[in-house]
Amino acid sequence: MAHVMGVSLAGEETLGRTPGVHEVHLTEKKVILNHEVAEEEDNTTEWFLDTGATNHMTGSRSAFADLDTGVVGTVKFGDGSVVDIRGRGTVLFQCKNGDHRSLEAVYFIPKLCKNIISIGRLDARGYDAHIYHGVCTLRDPDGLLLAKVKRSPSFLYILKLNMARPICLAANGTETAWRWHARFGHLNFQALRRLAQAEMVRGLPVIDHVDQLCDGCLAGKQRRVPFPDKARFRAQDALELVHGDLCGPIAPATPGGRKYFLLLVDDMSRFMWIRLLSGKHEAAAAIKQFKAGVEMESGRKLRALRTDRGGEFTSVEFTEFCADRGVSRQLTAPYSPQQNGVVERRNLTVVAAARSMLKAAGMPAQFWGEAVMAAVYLWNRSPTKSLDGVTPYEAWHGRRPSVEHLKVFGCVGYVKTVKPNLRKLDDRGTRMVFIGYEQGSKAYRMYDPVSRRVYVSRDVVFDEAAMWPWRDPEVTQTGGEEDFTVEFFSTPLGGNRVPDVVVEHGGARETETAPSPLATPDAAPVWSPVTSSSPAGVEFCTPPSDASIESDGAPPRFRTVNNVLATTTPVLDFDYNDECLIAEQEPFSFKEAEKEQCWMKAMEEEMSSIEGNNTWFLCDLPSDHRAIGLKWVYKIKRSAEGEILKYKARLVAKGYVQQQGIDYEEVFAPVARMETVRLLVALAAHEGWQIHHMDVKSAFLNGELEEDVYVVQPPGFVVEHKENKVLKLKKALYGLKQAPRAWYAKLDSTLANLDFVRSATENAVYTRGEGNARLVVGVYVDDLIITGALGTEIAKFKEQMRSMFSMSNLGLLSYYLGMEVKQTEEGITMSQAGYAGRILEKAGMQGCNPCQVPMDARLKLKKGVEDCIDATQFRSIIGSLRYLVNTRPDLSYSVGYVSRYMENPGAEHWAAMKHILRYVAGSLNIGLKFRKGEEKFPRLVGYSDSDMAGDVDDRKSTTGVLFKLGENLITWQSQKQKIVALSSCEAEYIAATTAACQGIWLARLLGELQMKKPCCTMLKVDNKSAINLCKNPVLHDRSKHIDTRYHFIRERVERKEVEVEYTSSAEQLADILIKPLGKVRFLELRGKLGLSPV
């Protein structure tokens, strides 16, 4: 009988062969090599049925439909001769009705002149061979007749076969049958026929086609299977029993680091759910989310969960979770994955389908995540022997699925271009690749290999006969061939199963077994472990063998890790940010972070920074104090384009347990206002100065504490043998209530020692020097912006700061507080295009139809609506839009107006907000420009305006104020007045008072920066009655009731700190801040404010 004489992995020193070659040595004691006729022509039609041979063998190279030439070795025949083995593969032949059948594991022996089929091998696979009255009858495992062979005069049984070749799907893809075969993930034609004839789905035509194989099926579905046993239990209700299993690790990992997928199968309906995971530790959380979702969807409770005994399923936390919610845990016995055969088989079926789809489309291996998701989507809509006349989808949802929308995975599609401002001759469609179906939406997932991004769209025109040229170097950047492999976690087999052939590939053992004569249908088989000579750390696949005969999945099989999935060509370095399943994620706990090297490195850097700063020392905890806890917070810092800059780990104190008066006193620390930042930028642009940016590393760690504060030792960095000690802080930590104030005090004293003077008007602004040597520094927590006339002074200051703190020199200011800054010789621009794009993504408005104004003219909203919407999401988007106003004064009124209805928003408020988002989508590249001026001291000019009783609910008016330094806009505001004005004069007067307050503050700050006395602020108003009221102390019927505080402007006009001047309504720039305008007027004022494409 055939057995292994010696097995090894090519590439080892004992063989000296190239990696990927497997060597086997066989013995055929009952087969004799005929040397005399060894040079005859290849005869592929005649195959000898041999009960003495233990392997299928042929000497004809042309007989193979698929041949793995990496399998080499020798075979020793009964006459003692030894010949070489040159490969092992699959022979494909065609039946009289046109069906394709395959003969697998056939050895290629060039010196063998005959073709031999081993009856023993067929018997092991479940085939029936019966000889009676000179006729040998062959039947397949389902009992279907394959062949009748008459005995020849030489008393041999010679089977004459019609050799076949796999159908080229690319050449036959236009035929209806083959098209649906590809759409259903290479589902066999018999199953397609069942789907259509039983009307299990809607939209599928009747498929009348012989059961043939395409090239993708041959590459993706080769397997060796034992005959399955019948399952003894079947759930009767949904969620009565759910099978779960983890598949992986899969190589190569997705760009987002996904290496596993979790498959969950409902026993009653056979419906499947899949989740892609980056590590085993995410499995428990995924099951919790699955439980919540399916229980809400079905209205039933999950009663039992069957998994193996992997650590991800047996943790104490997960076990308690299941126990608290009444979920029964069914764990397979050790070394017995057969007890969870339903999901084990489905794992193999999903992987095989995904591999076939990838191979047929020629797609790179990194798309395995999309392929398995699509495979599960299709198998839920495919027939199964476990269900009678229905699909898993119908068994779970109670309705037949529609399949009219199915398309061939990997085909080319043309996605409608929806970007704004298309020109007449621009393309209306973009050529992309179809990679699956968007969950929760009636839309397709399309991948653009040029931009390397994923798009979700329903407006797609498909060319299912065309595939993307992945291997064309002029079209796609590809690397070398890379294996797409899966490592299945289970155990070696032994006991009553008698192995007859064992082949090892680099330590991964592959075993073919014969049914045990001792096993009975009523008794579970008994297994005992078998020792393996495989190297440590190698895990291999052992699928179940007692599979249900009613299963719709592939029967169990044994395969090596290396040949589970075939070789494909990867795409290198592409952006996959739109793929929610394979995105970069920040860990939530130390246990998650410690498994990733990048986060461990970030934590070590943080600890080095803390210890190098002499932040704490180890001591015993006094009896009258308590230690504050510490935790790690993780953040991925990205650029304006969304690229990862660094992984940041921050050690944070749990300051929420501190008590005022005991653990801290004062907590306030000033930061620069956004108006101040824009003023500094405008001044620098006017003078032609450069603005530099510095960042203080771990800024709060530099603040010196006045109170006694004790903290526990940080997670993961506890000093050995001193676990009971605590840390006393000498300097502040992030999270402490007093940390910001302590850092500001430290920075303030440091800048004072460097001869800086703190501004009396803005405590976050410091100045030093005179004339060209003057230096201005703006502080926002740990970010410093520095500007001045001389680059040498800026460089000197940077060196001084580096000598005192650990600083990051970020060079010229380019990205600050979410704002993108560009500095050129003509001036400086500020925009928030990246932030605006993220708002649209958050609101699900990417690709929406843009508009040219943020709000319809004469739009009036009111409170008290009945059709309420999700207030949380509404408030979240409005909050994001309000931060966008920092560089977009054109949005100030519209965003402020809809903000009034956050308490109880309705459908009309939501529609108004979406209108704003459409305007944002059409003006993403709009930014604020600060131009270089010629005047030595630019003048501060303000505009104030007001509508009259514009709010329909309380009849209050809206104030609009803006100020320009020379030609550069620096501040603006649009807000509802706090009292009801009785006339337009009163409303304008109140607005002018608000503008005067802002103007006086700006004039004082500007005077400090320019080292001169504050100038008189020019304020332009378009209401002459309000101007007269500002200049003259007149009290008459229309003004005598005005609150005293609003007469502040009259006093400032008398002191000549404010000069009020009339401007016509046509020149009133603040008009854009008080009401919605028509398109022409809006665009005119937007341009005058300095907003333009950047």
Key phrases:
disordered N terminus, Nucleotidyltransferase, domain 5, 52 strands, six-stranded antiparallel β-sheet, metal-binding, alpha+beta, 24% helix, elongated, Cathepsin D, subunit A, domain 1, 1094 residues, aspartyl protease, 25% strand, five-stranded mixed β-sheet, nucleic acid binding, 24 helices, aspartic-type endopeptidase activity
Number of helices in the DSSP assignment: 24
The Cα radius of gyration reads: 38 Å
How far from one another are the termini?
79 Å
Largest beta sheet, briefly? Answer: 6 strands, antiparallel
- In which order are the strands of the major sheet placed? 38-39-40-41-35-42
User: Which structural class fits the helix and strand makeup?
Assistant: alpha+beta
Shape: elongated
Range of strand content:
15-25%
Q: List how many beta strands DSSP finds.
A: 52
Report helical residue fraction.
Answer: 10-25%
Low confidence ranges: 1-19, 36-40, 223-229, 475-483, 488-583
Q: Give the averaged pLDDT, no decimals.
A: 79
How does this model look, in words?
Among the domains are: 118 residues, Cathepsin D, subunit A, domain 1 (Beta Barrel), CATH 2.40.70; 44 residues, no CATH class; 174 residues, Ribonuclease H-like superfamily/Ribonuclease H (Nucleotidyltransferase, domain 5); 61 residues, SH3 type barrels (Roll), CATH 2.30.30; 209 residues, no CATH class; 128 residues, Ribonuclease H-like superfamily/Ribonuclease H (Nucleotidyltransferase, domain 5), CATH 3.30.420.10. Helix content is 24%, strand content 25%. It has 24 helices and 52 strands. Helix 17 packs antiparallel against helix 18 and helix 18 packs antiparallel against helix 19. It is elongated and about 130 Å long. It starts with 7 loop residues before the first strand and ends with a strand. The N terminus is likely disordered. This is cDNA clone:J023111N02, full insert sequence. It comes from Oryza sativa subsp. japonica (Rice).
